[in-house]
Amino acid sequence: MTRKMPRSNSAELITLRVNIVKELRSKWKKERERNPYINEHFGGFVNELLHEILEKDEFLRHYAPFLSEEGCTRDTLYIKDYKENKITEIHFHDEKLHCSLCESSSCFHIQFAMATPRVAKLNIKNQTADEDIEEDGQQVRKVTNNKRRKSTISRK
Ligand SMILES: [Zn+2]
Questions:
Q1: Were 109 and a residue from 2, 41, 70, 99 both cysteine, which residue would form a disulfide, CB within 3.0 to 4.6 Å?
Q2: Where is this region: Disordered (predicted)?
Q3: According to the 3-state scheme, what is the secondary structure of the chain?
Q4: Dihedrals phi, psi of 65, to nearest 5 degrees
Q5: Distance of CA 26 from the midpoint of ligand 1 (Å)
């Protein structure tokens, strides 16, 4: 299979994980079926997708300049509100996002949280996160297997 390289002189080659490329390809195919204006080149589609993420970050900075994402754990997204000078915790339960500061599921913090990519990490059932863990687990297993082999050899 031959792949057309991007024509742009400023193009740069980067390495993407095999799983990510698979997911991107299936997203590209599905979107092409629904929308004829989606880029006909896979590389172009990925570039546009990444550019949209950057534009969304920029939009969020204008839309909510007093809010910022302070990090997340497996079940909590922390958002700093500079107007209130407080950090709110966003949790996902009963199929809803919940803001601890406003005790609401429909406040401005929830709107902001919904626009961050990390909001997806709050859903433990999220498939992508599970695949990542599986992949990491496999790598760990490979390393430990190698170590075991080496230690067996050294014992002989
Ligand atoms: Zn809130």
A1: 99
A2: 132-156
A3: CCCCCCCCCCCCCCCCCHHHHHHHHHHHHHHHHHCCCCCCCHHHHHHHHHHHHHHHHHHHHHHCCCEEEEEECCCEEEEEECCCCEEEEEEEECCEEEECCCCECCCHHHHHHHCCHHHHHHCCCCHHHHHHHHHHHHHHHHHHHHHHHHHHHHHC
A4: -65, -15
A5: 35
Residues 6+ apart with CB under 8 A from 136: none
Specify the residue for token string 């993420």. 53
Q: How far is the centre of ligand 1, averaged over its atoms, from the C-alpha of 103 (Å)?
A: 7
Cα(65) to ligand 1 centroid in Å equals 15
Rounded distance from Cα 21 to ligand 1 centre (Å) = 36
- Write down the domain spans for the chain: 17-63, 66-130
Give me ligand 1 centre to Cα 53, in Å.
24
Q: Calculate mean pLDDT across residues 85-103.
A: 94
CA of 27 to the centre of ligand 1 (A): 32
Q: How long, in residues, is the chain? A: 156
21/122: higher pLDDT: 21
Convert the pLDDT of each residue in 105-144 to its tens digit. 999 999 999 999 889 888 766 444 444 444 444 444 444 4
